[in-house]
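This protein record is not my work; I was only asked to verify it. Would you go through it and say whether the fold makes sense for this chain? Here is the record exactly as it was handed to me.
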Amino acid sequence: MTFLTWIIFLLLGRATEAGRVLFLPSTLDPVHPQTMAVLADELSRRGHQVSWLEIGPQQSKTVLLKNVTREFWPAQLGDQRLNEIYLHRNHTNYGKLWNAKFTWANEQTTGWLASIKICNSLLSRNQQKFDDLVKKRFETVVVDDLYNPCGLLLVALRKSVYVYWSMTSMRTESAWANQSPTPPSYLPVPGTGFTDDLNFFERTINVASYLRQLYVHQHLIQRRIDALFQKFYPGAPSAFEVERNASINFVNNPPIFDFARPFMPRVNFVGGLHCKKAAPLPKDLEDFIKKGNKFVLLTTGFTAQWTVAPPAIKEAYIKTFQSLPSLQFIWQYNGEELREKPANLLVRPWLPQQDLLGHPKCAAHVSHGGLNSVIESVWHGVPVVGLPLTSRGYDNLLRVTARNAGVMVEKEDFNREGITSAITKVVKDPKFQEEMEIFQDMVTDVPFTELYHAAFWVEFIERHQEVPHARSGADKLNVLQYFLVDVIAFFACIILLTLQILFFAVRGLFRVLSSVFKLAIGQKSTRPMTPGKKRN
């Protein structure tokens, strides 16, 4: 066989392995498309025919390789409040983020309700277009598991294998759908602000939060999704049934990042697949960093809109920078021009975050708690000063501060004293850097990257189409059976029946003995006196 024949054979073999993959990211959170794009590009490099579809009020700014077939289907929210939250990002909630009592606890519920409106808008105007997509051939579909009812509907109608990708850590309802055990006795429910070290009262609150989150998702969200499905496609499976039948589940955090927990074989942790080694910085950034010995990076991602931030918060930041002249500060800031800008401060509306975190002079990362942002800090080994703006950000930062790789600043302490104290503590105390480096080693010391891991599993289900051996028997159980309520009730009945039998047996025995005793006493009292004996 000639060399050319071998080359053709290898190319044909590679072509037969590559398949058609469709990505369906949610457009309500800009981070979701950016994260999924990393895997889409990787699969495209491997020779797959990758398609990318966004459905929403506006297309994301995500950059994809030219080989990726990209489409955008516009669909309106149809609600002024939702437009302010997701489209214009000028809702009053963005101004409340710094309020100590505001955690945006209903952020996820609002997102789901908005996504249902988007899907309804699309199907009302372009159902035929959606039907045509259902008929297209794809070996697998990658679906964002937050705010994506149209993605669920597509895989339900296609009856195809699909990857269900959680852009957060494993949430309560996600774990329930993929049957990963989530004991609320020690696993903190998102939004509670707990670690895995719970006392009695915290466990009580945790159980109540666990039940509440399941109720909200299954009875408030999924019922609305089911109504949407039946409106346009009568007889379609329920949203819960579709979620439970995911072929593979991706979770957007590294395996050792979260608190230790059990999970099913089909669950794969791919968080950090976007992480990369630092590249050289632009000249203006490098020149600024060279002015000092160390610098601190401050970022807020897409969460904070500095244009609506309270003036007191901005002033607290500025005074913090002024009080620490030995440090350089690089701040991701998109608000109005600062009137008083210290010499040790550089501001930009957007920054090459990973390149800065990977710089040897980066001493700390002041983070709002975005999951990707926190993972990047761990991946590059930079201790964190957490200034959480939402309950979700607080939970993400807890994964670092609970390991002593950073400190948390409560919202009540969002002032010059609180922020300055936290930054000083992290920069001057070497234990935070040491603990973060230990955490970094555990996260990065893996036989393959998370990106390779994710690409492998997409190709795995392309080849095998389904992974029945990764499913548990729990899929066939209802709630009562899953929690052994029927078995516990059976044992309780057996115990009660046994106790009742013992009760009646003891009572019967007591009555018999009582009767015998009474009879014996009666016979003794009526016995005649012996003849010949008299009383004194």
In short: Confidence is low (pLDDT under 50) at residues 3-16. The CA atoms of residues 5 and 11 lie 10 Å apart.
